[in-house]
C-alpha cells in the first residue's frame, strides 16, 4: 500500500495557509471599515456634520475585499478546471 | 435508451432518491453557520444553497467518470442488483442519522453500501481495499483536524486583528462575508456530491450495455442528478442544521466566516489533489475549530463524541445493511422487490417518526424549546433494519442503537 504522505501534508499545509491568509486579509478590511466609521463618528461629533471620509481607509478596505474575491475566483477556476 | 429494463429504471430512481437524501442531509454544511449567526434567514439560506448545488452539478464531471474513485472494481461484475442494494443501505443510513440530527457523511454511506453489496454480490476481490484506506479512511481521519486547525487559527487571528474595531461594524462585515463563504461551500458540494449520483447512474447504464464503456454521463443524467440534490437541499435537513449551527458551539459571525472559509479551502484543495473527503466531517471540524478559537473557548463534547461514533459507524453500518440487501436482491426479482418494499417502508417509518418532533425553518434556531426525544425512535429503528436485512439483524441493530443515548436532539 502506497500512502502519499507528501501530498497529504501539502494539502494540509496549503489549506491552513490559505484559510488563515484569506480570513486575516478580510479581517483587515473590516478593521479599516470600522476605523473609518469611528473617525467619521468622531468628526461628526466635533463639526456637527459628516463630510470628507478618510478615503485611504476606504480604499484599503476595498483592496482587502478585492484580494479575497480574487482568492474565491481562483477557487472557482479550480473546481471548473477540466 | 431502448435497452433500459424495469430494474435499471428502478435503480435510476433509487439513485436519484439517494441524491435527494444526500442533498437534505448536507444542507447543513453550507447553511448551518450562516443561519446560526443570522447572516441569512433560514429559507433564504437553503434556497441559495439549492441553486448553487444545482449549478455545481454542471461545473465538472471529473469524478463521475470513475465511480467512487476506484473503490469498487467495476470490471469484476457489478450488476444493477448490487448497485440497488448499495443505494438502499446508503439511503436508510442517511435517513436514520438525519432523524437523530447527526451529521454523518453521505459519501461514506454510499461507499459503505457499495463495499458491502459488492463483497456479498461479487466477493472480496470486487473491492480495492488499498484504495479504501488511502482514499477514504486516511482523509476521513485527517480532514476534520486540518479544517479544525485552519478554522481555529483563522478565528484567533481575526479576533486579534478586529479587537480594536467597533463590534457592530465587524459583525455586519463578517455576516456579509459569510454569504460568500457559505455559497462557495454549496457550489463545491454540488460539484462533488451530484457527480457521485451521476457516476452511479452512468455505471448502471454501462453495466447493461445502454452506454459504451468509459462514456460520459448523458445530459439528462446531469440535469436530473443536479435537480435531485437541489430539491433535497431546498427541503433542508433542519435537524442537522440545528445540531451543527447551535449544538456544537455558540458561533458568532466572525467564527462562522472563519469556519466556512476553512471548509471551502480544505474541500477545494483536497479535491484538486485527488482526495475524496466528506464535506460533512470537514464542516464539523471547521465549526469545532472556530468554537475553540473564540474568546470563550467551548464545545459541547457530548455531541462531539456522538458525532464521532456515528462517523466511525457509517461505513460498516451502511455496508452491513447493503450486504444483507444484496444477499436478498441476488435471489431474483422477488428479492429485489422485497428490498424495494423494505426501503420504502423504512423510509416512510422514519419520516413519520420525524413528524413527532418537527424541526423546520421557523424553529431551527430555538434550541431552548427543544425537549429531548424519548426513547421511542431507538426502539423502532432496528425494525427497519430487520426488514431490510434479516441475515444481519443481530449485528446491525445493536450497532446502530448502542452509542446514541436516549436524549437525541440538542437540548442546549
From TrEMBL, chain A:
The keyword Transmembrane applies. Keywords: Membrane, Transmembrane, Transmembrane helix. The lineage of its organism: Bacteria, Bacillati, Actinomycetota, Actinomycetes, Kitasatosporales. This is Uncharacterized protein. It comes from the Bacteria. The chain crosses the membrane at residues 12-34, 55-81.
From TrEMBL, chain B:
Its main location: membrane. Keywords: Membrane, Phosphate transport, Transmembrane, Transmembrane helix, Transport. InterPro entries: Phos_transporter. It comes from the Bacteria. The keyword Transmembrane applies. One of its GO terms (cellular component) is membrane. It is a multi-pass membrane protein. Belongs to the inorganic phosphate transporter (PiT) (TC 2.A.20) family. This is Phosphate transporter. It comes from Kitasatospora aureofaciens.
